[in-house]
Amino acid sequence: MFSAILIEKDDTGNRTHITRLDESQLPPGDVTVRVACSTLNYKDALAITGKGPVVRKFPMVPGIDFAGTVEHSSHPDFNVGDAVLLNGWGVGEAHWGGLSQMARVDGNWLIPLPKGFTAQQAMAIGTAGYTAMLSVLALERNGVTPDKGEILVTGANGGVGSFSIALLAGLGYTVVASTGRIEETDYLKKLGASEIIDRAQFSEPGRPLAKERWAGAIDSVGSHTLANVCASTQYGGTVAACGLAQGMDFPASVAPFILRGVTLVGIDSVMRPRTDRLNAWDRLARDLDLSILNDITREIELSEVVQTAQRLLAGEVRGRVVVNVNS
After folding, report:
1. Sign of the C-alpha dihedral, residues 28, 31, 32, 35?
2. Which end of the chain, N or C, is less surrounded by CB atoms within 10 Å?
3. In terms of Cα–Cα distance, which of 283, 289, 226, 284 is closest to 252?
4. Can you spell out the DSSP letters for 125-138?
5. Distances in whole angstroms, Cα of residue 85 to Cα of each of 3, 50, 82, 115, 312
6. Residues 32, 71: contact at Cβ < 8 Å?
7. 6-21 pLDDT, tens digit each
């Protein structure tokens, strides 16, 4: 038996609670993992609270990330005792996820825990840091180098935003952070932001083209914010879109793309090929200053997950939340 967060659905709606499950109840898969740590992401919070159509079948154990140790394996790449990591692949949505002491998954979804990372550190980074790294790589591929100008990071206090700032600053970029929580200025500047601006200047409908400022941007907000960021990006700049905190809509015009040659790059972290995952985690191991994890991360227990998910959606959680599933 093991403990897990379980989302169930009946005529009255969704119910999320901690329960005890038997290993025989785990879904199909060729690798069984004893989970050490998971995380609480924005998508997890939507699933847990029922405020977004994330879960595609019930009952569901949420949690799009986990790190742990292989207990059983019939997959050729993994043996008992191997330390492994999973991000995405629909776990916590269509397949039971990581907010549990045990998980059984397709071994093709796993990668070895990167050298130099503990399970707790890997989950402090999690999908947020991995997505931020994918976004930075997209800027690099499009020739956005530190000498080109300022890089804007929206949703700066969130997990993706926090890691984006730290990674970009560490690579020598000048980073401007957009946030609705100006009181967190000291935190954002400690991560490496050179300037903090209020998200209000992006969150309302704007002009098709605005004054050119950004050489590139990483946006985890979407909606009017993304449209305004594109409208104020320099000629030939690149915007990496990786989130939808404000909304899924994109009320923009084609003007930035056909008049300024702006590139909008979509960042998918869920179904990313294995080679891209390994490259991103290799770069995280090389480029991320692990000393920032204490500033970015807080740790909670399974019993705190539901309440913390509500606070996360209310914008009251800074940075990353690691869930110690065994405490």
Report:
1. negative
2. N
3. 226
4. HHHHHHHHHHHHHH
5. 20, 26, 10, 11, 24
6. yes
7. 999 988 888 999 999 9
**Which residues is 322 bridged to in the sheet?**
39, 299
Report all structural domains of the chain as residue ranges with CATH numbers, in order of start.
Answer: 2-113+292-324 (3.90.180.10), 127-266 (3.40.50.720)
Q: Are 65 and 86 in contact (CB under 8 A)?
A: yes
Q: Strands 214-219 and 151-153, how do they pair?
A: parallel
Q: Given the structure tokens 């700049």, which residue do they identify?
A: 237
CA 11 to chain centre: 32
DSSP strands (E only) in 40-126: 65-73, 83-87, 102-105, 111-112
- Is-contact 120 68, C-beta < 8 A? no
DSSP 97: -
The tens digit of pLDDT for each residue in 65-94 reads 999 999 999 999 999 999 999 999 999 999
Smallest Cα–Cα separation from 63: which of 9, 105, 1, 107? 105
pTM for this one? 0.93
